[in-house]
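job 3f2a | input accepted
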Amino acid sequence: MSDPSANAPARAADVRRMTFDDNALLAVLYGNHDRNLVRIEQLTNAQLSARGNQLAIAGAPDDAAVAQKAISGLYERLKRGLSIESADVDAAVRFARTSNEGGDGEGIRTRRRTVQARSPGQRTYLAALRERDMVFALGPAGSGKTYLAVAMGVSLLLAGKVERIVLSRPAVEAGERLGFLPGDMKEKIDPYLRPLYDALHDMIPAEQIAHRMESGEIEIAPLAFMRGRTLAHCFVILDEAQNTTPMQMRMFLTRLGEGSRMVITGDPSQTDLPGGQKSGLNDAVDTLKDVDGVRFVRLTSKDVVRHDLVTRIVEAYDARDKKAKS
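job 3f2a | predicted structure (326 res):
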């Protein structure tokens, strides 16, 4: 970290001082070898200097304000008994830049962790998941569309508010011809549903996942075999929805039964359908945009919570696509 007075002659700096009342939490706040403070310096361009239970923040007024707000949010998070990971530091800076007060305060409680929003867009998404029976989440890879949907489904299942979680995904890469893959039905579709499994394992112990799948509380339902069903009292997730056809999407949406909720996730920019075929996701957005009770949440590169490079990659592709359209 830097001496907060080092660049004072070069530019007018806003110097802020923070005092903390719990030294045990302070060690966690700063991180091993002050890595959390170093990360905040990198993200905000502010300069941080710690001494005892005091922290000096220096930099341009906007930078210093963002750093102070982010640190305050992280400290309050620790006081609520929550942990801090590197992604939480990045999230705190995102919220501080948008003048929002912290993340999703309540979070989603699962067996293994409490999942919280890490961007303003994700907070809007979580609110929609709580309030609406049908939510469309559109956005790039890494923006939390699938992960947050699975977290909400697990939370509702554990609370007894739904009886089942139903996970579905189109198998476009095999042209829906699952017979070309070896094994039984579960083995055929497992490769396409791996992201959903990964999210489940983050939230429920592996042995419980196996038990709940055997009992039918967690069901893997290939999109190609959903026709004719009524999905009642369950939380239904359709992942990679940009790879559905309009007919498949219409069929899927009309499976919604009594006491159920449905989440449809997808990235309209990554359609794998052959020959310019219209995506069922785009068709649904056009058709249902004015239907009461349906909520559309659009996430952007600013909501990407993977590696920093992923954000830059998404933005580069978006810029290229906009240039091509113009």
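job 3f2a | The radius of gyration is 23 Å.
job 3f2a | closed
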